[in-house]
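[Discussion] Sanity-checking designs against the backbone

I'm trying to build intuition for which residues belong where. Below is a structure token string of 522 positions. I'd appreciate it if someone posts a full sequence so I can compare it with mine line by line.
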């Protein structure tokens, strides 16, 4: 029986079962895991143990900013792995990618002692287990052979190789890459079901176990490199105990091939935050201007708000200023940066628009005039790179065409295209989505505590927090039907990732910033 992952790691796990169940790591110091049921282990070591009526706990010494990955597997029981540390730090996982094994992947917040606790789900199982740990920024214990662009190398998985966290044999190769390079890694074999993993310089990992959908034992991964540095390529197998020859190749990605685009430590958020409360041409609102300012402040506090971002509130939130800010940021942002457009204010639905398939258009009601959804879509048509559009306004779901126009775009909308959005007085915010999104940026959406906020994590957090907020008192509002009449309705959050245009595991931003911690919204 396979259960759902625990909420604290659901977003992390949904991106790839094979990757998370079988992440390669270095072997223990002795070449084999030690056998014990408690005590101390060093990061990079593994341990075999057994639980019956009580849990097993191991102490690990960690450094602030260090990334720790730990995997727990057992053939005897359904595992639960919990990482705890100073200041109430805690990460728990009970299903690695839909399996009964467990994996935690976290960036440690401070220097000190951390505990890894092994238990069974609902304390209903017992038996033998294997716990492995690693610092993925240094996955190789020794020196890995080099591989260069355009080169093919052959090797073989043997019983004398290092093993992965969950026991698979693994070989490593080192590649020196440059930020912005688009490269493709291929791993093929006629005798083993391959698993290809690429470790980024900051310790994050990207993996693939199938060249294409369906039955295939070869692996391919095309990546736009997020930073200068050393990348480690891990050649392994999808299951334990597999041995045999393989070939690994590194090549320049062909034109037109879509690549994985991990966000690097240099990535920034170019934020256009817009909030209008003090309208002169329509009814005033409460705190919608504060929504925008607080979102900008949350990004600034994380150290990732790019110089040149713009916070436009009330009389400054005009059509001309929005257009100028978008043009300026689009020209300034790099290939690894994120453009975020946030709006809190009035929205409207205008019938009789021949430019729209349904005969109506939705608006962002700026201080001086309306900005139509098709106009904003045109303004953003040529913007490349990752885009996050967050709107807390009536009928905001109608702006989904902007998200669907290109890959690597994501939208969070406070209501459907035909539904009003309500104010959130009890949340001390202009709207419900504004308050929840601010909490997400403050770190609460980083469900696996690894400082990388992914599209999947943001989706999970926004939905779960929204429906927990309104569970007892659903947001009864009004909806506008095709006859231009208002009917009773309910407000629901809308998350749009453009089909698979914005991958679940795509990193949107690295919380806590990086070397380029410049931050002031104009």
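Best answer:
Here's mine. Compare freely.
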């Amino acid at each position: 029986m396979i259960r759902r992952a625990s909420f604290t790691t659901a977003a992390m796990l949904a991106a790839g079962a094979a990757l998370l169940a079988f992440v390669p790591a270095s072997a223990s110091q002795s070449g084999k895991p030690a056998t014990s049921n408690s005590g101390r282990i060093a990061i990079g070591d593994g341990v075999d143990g057994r639980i019956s009526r009580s849990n097993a706990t191991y102490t690990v010494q960690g450094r602030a900013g260090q990334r720790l990955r730990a995997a727990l597997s057992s053939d005897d029981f359904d595992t639960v792995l919990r990482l705890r540390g100073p200041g109430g730090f805690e990460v728990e996982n009970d299903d690695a990618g839909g399996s009964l094994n467990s994996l935690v992947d976290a960036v440690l917040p401070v220097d000190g002692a951390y505990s890894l606790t092994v238990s069974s789900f609902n304390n209903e199982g017992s038996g033998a287990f294997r716990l492995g740990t690693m610092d993925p920024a240094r996955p190789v214990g020794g020196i890995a052979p080099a591989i260069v662009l355009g080169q093919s190398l052959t090797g073989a998985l043997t019983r004398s190789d290092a093993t992965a966290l969950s026991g698979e044999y693994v070989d490593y190769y080192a590649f020196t890459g440059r930020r912005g390079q688009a490269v493709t890694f291929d791993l093929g074999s006629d005798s083993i079901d391959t698993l290809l993993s690429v470790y980024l310089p900051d310790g994050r990992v990207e993996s693939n176990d199938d060249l294409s959908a369906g039955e295939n034992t070869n692996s391919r991964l095309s990546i736009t490199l997020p930073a200068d540095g050393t990348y480690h390529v891990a050649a392994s197998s999808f299951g334990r105990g597999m041995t045999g020859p393989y070939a690994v190749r590194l090549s320049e990605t062909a034109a037109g091939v879509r690549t994985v685009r991990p966000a690097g430590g240099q990535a920034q958020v170019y934020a256009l935050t817009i909030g209008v409360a003090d309208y002169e041409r329509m009814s005033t609102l409460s705190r919608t201007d504060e929504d925008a300012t607080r979102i900008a402040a949350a990004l600034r506090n994380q150290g990732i708000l790019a110089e040149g971002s713009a916070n436009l509130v009330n009389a400054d939130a005009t059509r001309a200023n929005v257009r100028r800010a978008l043009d300026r940021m689009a020209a300034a942002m790099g290939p690894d940066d994120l453009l975020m457009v946030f709006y809190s204010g009035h929205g409207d639905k205008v019938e009789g628009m021949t430019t729209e398939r349904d005969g109506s258009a939705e608006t962002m009601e700026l201080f001086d005039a309306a900005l139509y959804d098709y106009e904003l879509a045109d303004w953003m048509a040529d913007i490349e790179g990752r885009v996050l559009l967050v709107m807390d306004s009536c009928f905001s779901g109608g702006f989904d065409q902007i998200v669907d126009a290109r890959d690597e775009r994501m939208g969070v909308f406070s209501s459907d295209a035909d539904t009003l959005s309500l104010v959130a007085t009890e949340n001390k915010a202009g709207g419900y989505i504004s308050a929840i999104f601010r909490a997400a940026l403050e770190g609460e959406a980083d469900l696996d505590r690894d400082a990388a906020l992914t599209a999947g994590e943001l989706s999970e957090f926004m939905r779960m927090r929204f429906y927990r907020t309104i569970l007892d008192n659903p947001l009864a509002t009004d909806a506008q039907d095709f006859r231009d009449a208002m009917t009773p309705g309910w407000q629901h959050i809308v998350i749009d990732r453009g089909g698979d245009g914005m991958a679940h595991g795509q990193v949107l931003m690295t919380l806590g910033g990086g070397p380029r911690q410049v931050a002031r919204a104009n």
